[in-house]
Write a structure and sequence with these properties.
heterodimer; A: 8-stranded parallel beta sheet; 13 helices; 8 strands; B: Potassium Channel Kv1.1, Chain A; 3-stranded mixed beta sheet; F-box domain-containing protein (chain A); F-box-like_dom_sf (chain A); F-box_dom (chain A); Leu-rich_rpt_Cys-con_subtyp (chain A); SKP1-like protein (chain B)
């Protein structure tokens, strides 16, 4: 066979015209790597590494680190112990800015504020999925103000918050595409805490829902019935830790008939660390909202398990 | 015309089902070592395959001046596993355990040069893991990148991101 002249490298490859360069690896010129190759590494970095370390390496990397394609999904969990809230919020803001409106999925833990939400609403008009976990600083007023800026929202997960039925009504009114809604709390199992405002808000404004998760809600059987009546497309329903629901036989039967994937109040919540964390290993249960694991496990039924 | 097509198809199917020794592809590393591989391996390397296609399969000796005889066996090993459908998490973990930082970078460049998508994707994850939560200075050293910010830019950066220069993992000693 004829030996051909060396293959000319494709345009997206750094050129190294003599074989010595191949052997002398120290001479590789990494800063000159094509943009899409650097992006293939950057896309695997978490937001913190991307926005602080990669951003600070050199001018070329700084420019590449601002590529909107890197910010379609914005998520920055497990950093609260390392960074101050204000620093983290600044990172979120920069990520939102760099996304140039391309963000479709945002997940915020702990540090969400009305200001940050407003910033997101003004820049991410195509947001399809939003998750707010333990964002106590987001208020009803803040959320109601921005709800109309999220017309494409299909999935909203609000776990442990200070929000009420007012936010739920605004979301239901402004987000007609919403298919999955999660609104979770730890639990309320004490008398005098029955409250169907949220259940009614969902029933009246989110009739298109397919998946609903309301862990630890204060609703009674009236609230649940309203949801079953109005949200006729529901495939999955998770009402774990909704201890105020008086589960009479006819209601249980109706749930099982109408809902394909069902989680009942006393099913285990091991898979939901955000609501079950701290339940069992707290030596003194000083927060009356915590419930006890032993009472939950005896009602555990695996055949009703489902996953959103 | 129709005859030509059918005879071409015949020869194709023969060479695919019955790879004779003459169909073996010779890959020549930058330091002139020849590696004989099955045509299926070449198919994994898009750059090589498109070269073979362009010459209608007449040329089967392919010089790869950008890849050393040290790195090429790793690439071939990965491609062999890939066509056997045996790329598992365990295999990848073992594979990467053998490689130091410099080798990872070399293989990444080789995968890019040969346009092997799976290997490229895998190695970009390996590199991302190795620079995750490391200091900026470490990342610069890792990639051999010089700090080209002006002193003013650098000062501004330090002020802006002062907290990012703390709390990172200690630098790896493995720099070779």
């Amino acid at each position: 066979m004829d030996l051909l002249p060396p293959l000319s490298p494709p345009s997206s490859v750094i050129s190294s015209s003599n074989s010595n360069a191949v052997m002398d690896s120290g001479e590789r010129n990494w800063p000159d790597l094509p943009r899409d190759i650097v992006l293939s590494i950057f896309v695997k970095l978490d937001l913190n590494d991307l926005l602080t370390h990669a951003y600070s390496v050199c001018t070329t990397w700084r420019n590449i680190s601002k590529d909107p394609s890197l910010y379609r999904n914005i998520s920055m969990p497990n950093l609260c112990s390392l960074k101050a809230f204000s620093d983290l919020e600044m990172l979120y803001r920069r990520a939102i800015d760099y996304s140039c409106g391309q963000t479709v999925d945002v997940s915020i833990e702990f540090l969400g504020t009305d200001d940050l939400l407003r910033h997101l609403a003004n820049s991410a008009s195509h947001l399809g999925r939003l998750r707010l976990e333990l964002c106590y600083s987001v208020t009803d007023r803040g959320l109601c103000e921005v709800a109309e800026k999220f017309p494409y929202l299909e999935e909203l997960d609000i776990s442990i918050s200070g929000l009420s039925h007012e936010s739920l009504r605004a979301i239901g009114r402004c987000c007609p595409r919403l298919k999955t809604f999660k609104f979770n709390f730890k639990s309320y199992r004490h008398q005098g805490t029955e409250n169907d405002h949220e259940a009614f808000a969902i029933a009246n404004s989110m009739s298109g829902l397919c998946h609903l998760q309301l862990i630890g809600n204060k609703m009674t059987k009236d609230g649940l019935l309203a949801i079953l009546d109005r949200c006729t497309q529901l495939e999955s329903l998770d009402i774990r830790r909704c201890y105020n629901i008086d589960f009479i036989a006819s209601l249980a039967k109706r749930c099982k008939e109408q809902i394909k994937y069902l989680h009942l109040p006393y099913d285990a919540t091991d898979d939901m660390s955000v609501v079950s964390e701290g339940d069992l290993d707290r030596s003194s249960v000083d927060d009356y909202e915590f419930s006890y694991g032993s009472e939950i496990s005896q009602y555990n039924s695996d055949d009703n398990y489902y996953d959103f | 015309m129709a005859e030509e097509v059918s005879s071409q198809m015949n020869s194709l199917s023969i060479s695919e089902t019955n790879p004779s020794s003459s169909a073996t592809i010779s890959l020549v590393s930058g330091d002139d070592i020849v590696f004989k591989v099955e045509p299926t391996i070449a198919k994994e390397m898009e750059t090589v395959q498109s070269f073979i296609d362009e010459t209608d399969g007449k040329i089967t000796t392919i010089p790869l001046p950008n890849i050393s005889s040290h790195d090429l066996p790793y690439v071939i090993e990965y491609c062999e596993k890939s066509i056997a459908g045996k790329i598992t998490k365990e295999f990848e973990a073992e594979f990467v355990k053998k490689l130091n930082n410099e080798e990872v970078k070399e293989l990444f460049l080789a995968a890019n040069y040969l346009n092997i998508k799976k290997l490229l994707d895998f190695l970009s994850q390996v590199i991302a893991d190795r620079i995750a939560n490391k200091s900026v200075e470490y990342v610069r050293r890792y990639f051999g990148i010089e700090n080209d910010f002006t002193p003013e830019e650098e000062a501004k950066l330090r002020e802006e991101l002062a907290w990012t220069f703390t709390g990172v993992d200690p630098d790896d000693e493995d720099e070779n």
